[in-house]
Amino acid sequence: MFSGPRYARLTIGILGGSFNPAHDGHRRISLYALKTLGLDRVWWLVSPQNPLKDRAGMAPLAERLAEARRVAAHPRVEVTAIETALGTQFTADTLAALTRRFPKTRFVWLMGADNLRQIPRWRAWTRIFALAPVAVFARPTYCLNALSGQAAQRYMRRRVSVSGVKGLARHKRPAWAFLRNPLDMTSATAIRQARATRIAHPS
Questions:
Q1: What one-character-per-residue DSSP string does 115-149 give?
Q2: 3-state DSSP helix/strand/coil % of the chain, to nearest 5
Q3: Angle at 45 between CA 40 and CA 47, to 5 degrees
Q4: Fewer CB within 10 Å of terminal CB in the chain, N or C?
């Protein structure tokens, strides 16, 4: 399914994460990215195991993939665990492997404002900005902290204006944009807690 020729000359946004579980917030961001950034596809890159998250409480990969495909429900949003085939765990390594495997495809890394704030904790994080343009989505309570954080300040002069985001994928790297998407309060943590409560106290 994920072969180079099929995606040649396409622009693809990559939304990585645990998707534990996937929810409507992921879908809304993806549809917003398709329209606002002029993407051809969005890939939900379901991580086998996020190195910054505890394994405890992490649903099996197959279960997270199945739920992500059910939630995505859109012909231009594709769900994959391609990191298992690439043999990568860290975002910088995954992006490097993808650009080798899909040399004729343009990629844009998609992430929430919370991740912009914490990205300096990621391995080889500056390499991520060197490998792909980055689109950052507004998230409740995180926006101001994210824009004053280390990553935003380091690449302040490389920030693309809202009027230029349609061509973000073609900008010389590093390039990033902060998108003023409608805020969504959906939380994977809250969903997991609600499910656990229902299991513990069935009606």
A1: HHHHGGGSTTHHHHHHHS-EEEE--TTTHHHHHTS
A2: 45, 15, 35
A3: 175
A4: C
Rounded Cα distance between 175 and 166, Å, is 13
d(CA 126, CA 57): 30
What tokens appear for 133 in the block?
Answer: 């343009």
End-to-end CA distance of the chain: 42
Across-strand partners of 176?
A: 134, 159
- What pLDDT digit, counting tens, does each position of 118-138 carry? 999 999 999 999 999 999 999
pLDDT digits (tens, 9 = 90+) for 165-199: 999 999 999 999 999 988 766 655 545 455 455 55
Rg of the chain on CA atoms, in Å: 17
What does DSSP assign to residue 159?
Answer: B
Cα–Cα distance measured from residue 35 to residue 68, given in angstroms and rounded to the nearest whole number = 20
pLDDT(78) > 50: yes
Show the tokens assigned to 146. 């994210």
How far apart are alpha carbons 176 and 189 in whole angstroms?
27
Contacts with 109 (C-beta within 8 Å, 6 or more apart), sequence order: 13, 14, 16, 91, 95, 128, 132, 133, 134, 135
* CA–CA distance, 136 with 8 (Å, rounded to integer): 25
- Placement of tokens 């505890």 in the chain: 54
On whether the CB atoms of residues 114 and 146 are closer than 8 A, the answer is: yes
pLDDT, position 118: 94
